[in-house]
Structure formats: C-alpha cells, structure tokens
Specification:
Elements: H1 3-23, H2 25-28, H3 30-36, H4 39-59, H5 63-70, H6 77-113, H7 121-148, H8 151-173, H9 180-201, H10 203-206, H11 212-246, H12 249-284, H13 288-318, H14 327-330, H15 336-358
C-alpha cells in the first residue's frame, strides 16, 4: 500500500469513526434510555434537542462550513492558524449573542411552539441549548484539525467528548436516577469542560478580536448554508414538532426511537462526508481524468458504506425485543423495513450534494 493510500485509510477510519461515534451518542445510549426513560421522557429529550439544534445552526453562523471549504485557499500554516482564530472567535461571539437573545425570547418561543406546557424553556430547554451551542463553538476547530489531518489532537478531543458524554449520562441516569434531567446535564458538561480547557491552554491560538471585514468572505459563504441546514433539519426532524401538536409525548418518544434508528445512516454519512471531503476536493482540483476517477472511487465507497449501515440498522431493529419490553417502543419494529428502503435513494443524493458544494 502506498503512503498516500495508507494515509487516506488512516484518516478515514479515524475521522469518520470518531465523528460518527460522537454524533451517534443517542444511539449508543439507547439501551440505557429504553431501560430507564419512559417513552414520554424520550419524546421530551428529542424535542429539547431539536429546538436547541435549530438555534445553534444560526448561533455560530455556520462558520465551520467556511472552514471546511475556504481553508484550502490559504497556503501557509500561519495563514491557516490565523484563519482558525478568526473563525473560532467570530463563531464564539455570535453564539454568546444568540444565547443572550434566547434568554429573553426563549420562554415565549417555547410556549408558542408547545402550547400544551409539556416542553418549557426553563430549565431543561436552557440546558439543551447550552449543550448545542457549546458543541457548535467547537465545530470550526474540529474542521480545522480534520483539514490539517492532525490525527492526534483531533482524536484526543473527540475521545474526551465521547467517553465523558457516555459516562456522565449513564451515571446520572442509572445510579443517580435523574432521568431526563440526567441525560441533558450529562450531555452538557463535556463540551463546556473542553471549551474551558481550550480557553486556559490555547487562548493565544484560538481567541483574537474578530476582524469582521476579514471574515466577510467566510460569512458570505456560510450565510446561505444556514437556510440549507435549517431545511435539512426541518426535513429530518420537523415531524417531531408536528406530532407534539396533536399527540402525547409517549407517541413522540416511540417515533423518536424509530427516527433514531434510521438516523444512524445519516449520522455516519455525515461523518464520512467530513472525512473524505479534503481528499475528494483535492482530487477534483486536478486534471479531468483524475477527477473523474476520484468521483467513481469515492462514490463507490460512499454508496457501499451506506448500504452496509442500512443493513446493520435493519438487524438492530429485529433484535429490539432484547433491549426493552415496553410495547410502545416495540411497535416501531413494524415500520423499520419501510424506513430502510426509503433511505436508499438518499445515498446517491447526498454524494451528489457533496460534489455540488465543491462546484
């Protein structure tokens, strides 16, 4: 195996694996959720995380997307480091401002979206929002480390977030018996802790006064993607808010379980997107014949990975009875085959979307 090929597979396995596991913590924790959270608590958890995600998309201005694409316009390491500090500081400033606005508007927003008083902004909505915003603040750094192929630093930060998130949620839910509150608090503490550590140890590298005129190209690139991200989130999760208007949280929880199982494919493909993007975009910038070859190779890898993941999801769904005896949860097994089949076309559209973003 050549050095370039070996580097690609090492990068792919490290970045895609860790990123997928970090994003899939909900799925990894499903055995705990199914055993210790009632269906209505699982439904509430899904709604709190959804509302927080909608705000976080706007809060950081999607500047991490600019890092993933515009990073390659900078030639020297010093320029790239400066670009990281500008995006990190600008994203953090936007997030702090957004949190301040939400502290004022959040209660009214939540009471409007959830008129039945089942979901409230204070205190659990705030916890979910802080979690989403803390994770959003870290995204430019993770995109920078992935583009630079800094495996050790990326792996260290990712493993901390993964292990701490899983461990804290299990401890707070199982022995402490905090239930829904334990799930939300356990997810909030790791990204907050990592941000504090970064501020103490990497302040000069990451924090500088945002140069907004210099950030203008990145903001122009990222702003249209906010609408795209909202539309994608609405497409994949808006159904939960719609269900909450007409059904109880128990029904939302059962549907959330079904969506979480089917969502494994999307989460893994998102991680695969981020992992192959630097290699794919580098190849697309070369001669036409090399670019065509890269599209065929990466496209085949992408589709094959997605099909394997969908087969795994179907297998997990068939063994759901080993994890819970709750009839509300078990009813989702009847819908999994249809859901898996419906996701097959998504594999092709996602890869073409990755190519379109480069163009």
């Amino acid at each position: 195996m050549s050095g370039a090929a070996g580097g690609f597979w090492q990068s792919l396995l490290t970045y895609a694996g860790l990123d997928a596991l970090r994003r899939a913590s909900f799925v990894v924790l499903l055995p705990v959720y199914l055993a210790y959270l009632a269906p209505d608590s699982l439904g509430a958890l899904a709604l709190y995380n959804l509302m927080a995600a909608l705000v976080a998309i706007v809060a950081n201005g999607r500047l991490d997307a600019a890092m993933r694409r515009l990073y390659f316009d900078y030639d020297t390491a010093a320029e790239q480091e400066h670009y990281l500090s500008q995006l990190f500081s600008g994203s953090l400033a936007l997030i702090v401002a957004s949190l301040g606005v939400m502290c004022l508007l959040g209660p009214s927003l939540y009471s409007t979206v959830f008129p039945n008083d089942a979901i409230r902004f204070y205190p659990l909505g705030v916890i979910a929002l802080v979690t989403a915003c803390a994770n959003a603040a870290l995204l430019p750094l993770f995109a920078f480390l992935r583009n630079r192929r800094a495996l050790r630093e990326f792996s260290g930060y990712s493993l901390f977030l993964i292990i701490a998130n899983l461990a804290l949620q299990v401890v707070l839910i199982v022995p402490f018996g905090w239930g829904l509150r334990g799930a939300l608090v356990g997810a909030m503490l790791p990204p907050i802790t990592l941000l504090v550590v970064l501020f103490m140890t990497r302040r000069r590298r990451l924090l500088r006064r945002p140069d907004w005129p210099a950030l203008a190209p990145s903001i122009r690139f990222s702003l249209p993607l906010i609408a795209f991200a909202w539309l994608y989130l609405f497409e994949s999760r808006l159904d939960r808010i719609a269900l909450a208007q007409y059904f109880d949280l128990e029904t939302v929880g059962a549907y959330g379980l079904l969506a979480a199982l089917l969502g494994v494919c999307g989460m893994l493909l998102h991680a695969l997107d981020a992992s192959i993007r630097p290699w794919l975009y580098t190849a697309l910038g070369q001669a036409e014949q090399q670019a065509r070859h890269a599209v065929l190779v990466f496209g085949g890898l992408y589709i094959a990975t997605g099909l394997l993941v969908l087969a795994f999801v179907a297998l997990v769904g068939s063994t759901l009875g080993l994890l819970t005896r709750d009839d509300t949860y078990l009813q989702v097994r009847a819908w999994l085959p249809l859901g898996v089949t419906a996701l097959v076309p998504m594999l092709f559209t996602r890869f073409w979307g990755l190519l379109y973003l480069y163009a």
